[in-house]
Every structure is written in structure tokens, then in C-alpha cells.
Amino acid sequence: MKRLFIIIGILVVLGLLAIPKILSSNGESAGQNQSGSGNSPLSVNVHLVEPEVFENKIFTTGTLLANESVDLRSEISGKIVELSLEEGREVREGEVLIKINDRELQAQLQQAEFRINLAEVREQRQKQLLERGGISQEDYDATLNELNVLRSEADLIEAQIEKTEILAPFDGIVGLRYVSNGSYISPTSEIANLQSINPIKIEFSVPERYAGVVQNGDRVIFNVQGQEDDFEASIYAIEPRIETQTRTLRIRALADNVEGKLLPGAFANLELIFEEIEDALMIPTISVIPELNGQKVFLLKDGRVEEQQVSTGIRTASHVQITEGIAPGDTVLTTGLLQVRVGSEVKVDEVNTYEGEGS
Hints:
The chain is an alpha+beta fold. It is built from three helices and 19 strands.
């Protein structure tokens, strides 16, 4: 019995000695739990809204075309007696480039003029006789008709003579020629090509979804191989139909080519600018959160998150224009959109701005 009391006493003493350690351990654990349960600020990336010049544009390719181009050919057959067709030379509209032998036609015209002179004298005499009653109206009409026929024959010969001259139909540059002085040519003979390259045309196509956006006067920036500079053109004509096979809209633009650096047939890379906005507010598309009644973004103000309803405009591959809801200088969250709550504190890791792009 005495031994039992001794054992119980020892256990009580050990328990009293262990209580402070247990309380200390529990206190530390509680402190650690309390410290671990504290909410540290969420790290996010943000976009600083600044007004930018935004160009709503697309990229495509096209081909340069001469403003005017014609294959010079003769309307009649004959021998070349005069040749003013120098390769690479600039010519003016109406300038004679080739003269075909017309001696036979000139002789026919002279013969016709002699006949007309005789017929005119006869017609005058017949007219005087008609006034005096010496001949009938029918006889005079026959004489007058004969005169008119002769005049028509002379006009026909003159038209044939005009065809013996090949004139420049417009100002341009002569290409390579394939005939020489003294050559016999016909309507099928290849003579040369004449091109006007100032201004020069650019032909290209855009997807049909832009048919309602593109319009005459839109700017086109393009470049070609072999030229370091960019060139600018303006749309002047739009095909009034969609190509059914390619689902594209064909367009042409005009560009100045005073120095002659641009040549027809060249391949061109183009930027078609639909619209230029001076003070556009662009933010990453990922920042815009769709809702049932509209769209919203999260703004960072004084270190806390706020919710803001917005209206959007033009979209690009990665950015969207905000037309209502934000102002220059606002800070829009681009990450952590699912974790943040209105009023919560966040820590900014990275600040981005809009660097510009096409649609």
C-alpha cells in the first residue's frame, strides 16, 4: 500500500513538471497556425492605360500594274517606211511612232478628189438648170447623190491613210520592240509595248468580311523587293462583287512613281489601313471579362481592386479598344482575374503598356 502511494506521488510530480512544456508547445503551435492563416497580397500583372495612335489595318499582298498599258499593233498590212520607236524612250500622246507605206492610198485619194471636183461642177450646173426649170428635181437629186458618194469614198480612203500611222495613245515609255525599219507588218505582228507607270497601280484582295469596311481613299503602305523605302498609295477602285472561288474582294490603289522606282509586275507586301484613331485606349483582350449584361475589367486603385463596367470597340489579335469605362492613367489587371475580389489588396509584379499592332 505504501508502495502504491509512492508511485502515485511520483506520477503527480512528473505531471506537474510536464504541464509548462505542453502549454508552451501548444502556444507555439497556435502562434504558427495564426501566422500561417494570414492572407498575403496576391501578385498580379497590370496594364497601364495610355492614349495611343491606333491604326486599324490588315496585311496582304498584291501586284503592281501599269497605269496604262497597250501592245502596239498595226490595223493594216504594209511596209514600215518611218520608225520612231526607240526602246526605253518616253513618248507623248499623239506622237507618230511608225509610218507604213501609203503611196497607193495617196494616189487613190488624189483620184477621188479629181472626181469630186468634176462632180461639184456638175452639181452646180444642175442646180442652176433646176432653178430655171431646165431639168427635173429627180435629175438634180441623182447628180447630188453621185457627189455625196464620191465624197464618202474619199473619206474612206483618208481613214485608210490614217491607219498607216501608229500614234502613241497616251504618254508612256516604249518597251522592247520587235520590228525594224523596212519590216513588213500585219495586224498580227508584235511591234512593242507602251506603258504609263506614273502613277502606278497596285492590285490586291482582302477577305470578304472587310467588304463593308474598306472604301475609296483608304491608305495603303507597301514595299517591294529591291527597294528599301516604303511607298504609300490610295484606294481608288473596288470591285463591286466578291470572288466566289476565293471569297475575297479585289481592290486597286494608285501610288506616285515620279522617279520610276516601281515597275509593273512586281510583288508587293501591303498594309491596308482602314481607320486611324489618334487617342485610342487599348488594353489586353484577356483583361475584359464578359458578363450577362455587358463586360467589365478589374482596376487597381490605391493598392486595392475595383470593378468597372466597360464598352469595347475595335479588336485586334491580342488587344481591344475601350470606348467607355476607363480613362488614361488607369491600371487594369491582366492576371489573377479569377482569384481577386473587389476591395482586396494585390501586389504588382509587372507593368505593361500597349506597343501597337494591326488587326
